[in-house]
Amino acid sequence: MNESMSDLIQLNRLDSGVVELVINRPEALNALNIAVLLGLKTALEKLASDQTVRVIVLRGAGEKAFAAGADIREMQTMGRSDAAQFSRLGHSVCLLLESMPKVTVAAVQGFALGGGTELALACDFILASEKAQFGLPEVGLGVIPGFGGTIRLARAVGLTRAKELVFSGERFGSAEAAQLGLIRKVLPQDGFFDEVRKQAAKIARNSLPAVWAAKGLMNEFEESSGVYPKVDAEIHRFSSLFGTPDQKEGMGAFSEKRAAKFVGL
Ligand code: HXC
Fold first, then answer.
1. How far apart are CA 88 and CA 91, in angstroms?
2. In terms of Cα–Cα distance, which of 126, 93, 100 is closest to 200?
3. Residue owning the nearest CA to atom 12 of ligand 1
4. Would the CB of 28 count as within 6 Å of ligand 1?
């Protein structure tokens, strides 16, 4: 059954307790603006207490993108306090995905950049097609990841590899994502979502109390050493870059479809 939470967020309820949560903004490559993040938050809060739901598959509409990041045009004019609020909103969505009593799976085909990679990293695990493209390109916009990406990427692939990826902003495909340990294996593009549904349904058939016990236990470690204690520090560092010449240049250059020329400190 398909439900529209809003124009931007859709729910496909499949048999067996699997729900697809779809970011529906394909004309902007599912870029995450405030309305999309609020829609995701509302939907996840509802699904968290829905006893019929066992597994949530997060995906993007269209073939080109999971999500090409936070909406750069919307961020371009933000001041520090708006940027801090925006980062906090994204964090709240990511923390829900990570900690809610449902299994959350990111199904990535096409671009998952910046906030897109960060949302995927917040899910319990990522399934990716051979056409997936990951990356945290924020430093090329004069800012840093602001939805927990630096912390979760380091957790997934190790600190030094995460540093190289964050400082270079380089994109990487699913073969490299598998080598890095971000995903377990690369799935064929043909029939990708059918395979995702099969894998999600397989999890949904397992004992729910056992699965929640495992998720809760595995997350307990996170509460002391993972993203939770660092949220405020990241929000502070992310938002403090707003209003700087490099943030204005980086985001202005994207909107004007040209390369950024950074001036430095
Ligand atoms: C706003 C975006 C967007 C974004 C794409 N679009 N990504 N709009 N924010 N992040 C829009 C484009 O402007 C364009 O709109 C339309 O989507 C199609 O994109 P194209 O660029 O024409 O497509 P293509 O040439 O195929 O290039 C795809 C792309 C490129 C490589 C993914 O769009 C791109 O580099 N996007 C930005 C990726 C990025 O830097 N993400 C990180 C954002 S910062 P028009 O109107 O021109 O058709 C971030 C911070 C998170 O995520 C933390 C915040 C707290």
1. 5
2. 126
3. 28
4. yes
Query: In this model, does residue 91 exceed pLDDT 90?
Result: yes
CA–CA gap between residue 186 and residue 234 (Å, rounded): 31
Kindly indicate the confidence band of residue 140, based on its pLDDT and cuts at 50, 70 and 90.
Answer: very high
Q: How far is the CA of 111 from the centre of ligand 1 (A)?
A: 9
Structural contact between residues 186 and 128, judged by C-beta atoms closer than 8 angstroms? yes
Residue with tokens 């997936």: 132
Q: Is the CB of 71 under 6 A from ligand 1?
A: yes
Nearest ligand 1 atom to the CA of 87 is 55
Cα 73-76-82 angle, rounded to 5 deg: 115
pLDDT over threshold 60, residue 1:
no
For atom 32 of ligand 1, the residue with the nearest CA is 68
Structure tokens belonging to residue 51: 């006893």
pLDDT 10s digits, 50-66? 999 999 999 999 999 99
- Which of ligand 1's atoms lies nearest the C-alpha of 64? 26
Whether pTM > 0.90 for this model: the answer is: yes
Q: What is the pLDDT of residue 3?
A: 66
Give yes or no for residue 192 CB within 6 A of ligand 1: no
Domains and CATH numbers, the chain: 2-191 (3.90.226.10)
Q: Which of 29, 234, 255 to mutate to test the pocket of ligand 1 (most atoms within 8 A of CB)?
A: 29
Flag whether pLDDT at 112 surpasses 80. Answer: yes
